[in-house]
Prior knowledge:
Elements: H1 29-59, H2 66-83, H3 85-93, H4 101-135, H5 144-162, H6 164-168, E1 169-175, E2 180-186, H7 202-237, H8 246-288, H9 294-314, H10 316-329, H11 337-349, E3 363-367, E4 382-386
Antiparallel strand pairs: 1-2, 3-4
Amino acid sequence: xxxxxxxxxxxxxxxxxxxxxxxxxxxxxxxxxxxxxxxxxxxxxxxxxxxxxxxxxxxxxxxxxxxxxxxxxxxxxxxxxxxxxxxxxxxxxxxxxxxxxxxxxxxxxxxxxxxxxxxxxxxxxxxxxxxxxxxxxxxxxxxxxxxxxxxxxxxxxxxxxxxxxxxxxxxxxxxxxxxxxxxxxxxxxxxxxxxxxxxxxxxxxxxxxxxxxxxxxxxxxxxxxxxxxxxxxxxxxxxxxxxxxxxxxxxxxxxxxxxxxxxxxxxxxxxxxxxxxxxxxxxxxxxxxxxxxxxxxxxxxxxxxxxxxxxxxxxxxxxxxxxxxxxxxxxxxxxxxxxxxxxxxxxxxxxxxxxxxxxxxxxxxxxxxxxxxxxxxxxxxxxxxxxxxxxxxxxxxxxxx
Length: 401
């Protein structure tokens, strides 16, 4: 953009002999306790929850599915939010001046927008994958290799969108007679208006945030909502009732698919609820010159803490993984793979009875269709199975009946 007569002043003024012109604001102890408590809770849940999600998928081969790879990518972006923007936002809201120096002045907004865009783009990829798999089930599925390429593109696009912020934010120090004023300010490319006045970079700032919030967030949100609507309609039309044989297997698969769709749709809804208020206020304040609202920003960051709770609530594998990791942390011994297999085999081989002690079982008459071999023998129509009594260790017929 042409800067014209909008060049900022280059002369440095000396304010060291002048008292600070404003009264320093004080923060009440109640406000400190509330903000710090909320920040600590959100930050801890986000850190622990998303770290556990990543560990569960990494340590279990059974959990390494394409859908879980997407969720791990979401967990990584949420971890970035927990590592920096959450606590930076809380501390900054309690101080009148910027206390984090030059590096975080530039890197914190860069990290915030990178994580927000990475989450949004990952949700877009998830919605596209589910839409393609359910609406066109006969076509080839997305492989893990393709997923890795898509996720690399997600992060490249997110970093590219956030990179301008590294050049637009500046750390400034101003020494007054009684205080050192430090703040983190924005300097966007300025434009000369038709009347010769300077816009102070407001036009460039508006264009950037409208593109980020409106084009790159709200438009994909609308498309994803439509995609999940079509998916739900498709699943309802092809609902399969409980039957035997192959139909029963299809019913189980469809119920599993429906649970996954509900979980992913819940993740999208929570993201919309958490992010849209901040984005709306951000754009509104571009035209009114207002300040960011603490609650709206913290609500956006709380999405990072809510996602792991959604995974655990809708996915039994994640719940079991959480329990196993907690057992490991508590120094409890976890069963080995062979012990787990042995336990499952014994459970499947045990004779199921209703509230009848095993020691009281003796001979149970039953009928077997002629021609069926049991342990190499072909019994007649009327047979007797000898169930184990107290002290009996073997059964005459196969336990797989």
